[in-house]
Amino acid sequence: MTDTTMTKVQSKSQATDKSRTSVATEIDKVIIGSIAAFTGVVGLWSLACIASAMFQAGGPLQLVGGWFKAVSGM
User: Fold this and answer.
1) CB proximity list for 53: less than 8 A, separation 6 or greater
2) Roughly what angle, to the nearest 10 degrees, separates helices 2-57 and 60-72?
3) Are 28 and 20 in contact (CB under 8 A)?
4) Rounded to an integer, what distance in angstroms lies between the CA atom of residue 23 and that of residue 29?
5) How much is the pTM?
6) pLDDT in tens, the chain (74 residues)
């Protein structure tokens, strides 16, 4: 009788552990997706900033030259 009771208790706890694991896996997927989306948005924003800076400076060489002048203080 005790073996049967122990078997039922063990099977219930295994089912609960599996459902908790699947919920944790789904949460992890959402977090990873959110981080990937945020990374993509930041990447696009940085490209837009660099393109705007190159346009304002007059080209990539002028942008680099202006950056060196700003850093060196000339």
Assistant:
1) 63
2) 90
3) no
4) 10
5) 0.57
6) 555 555 555 555 555 556 667 777 788 889 999 999 999 999 999 999 999 999 999 999 999 999 999 999 98
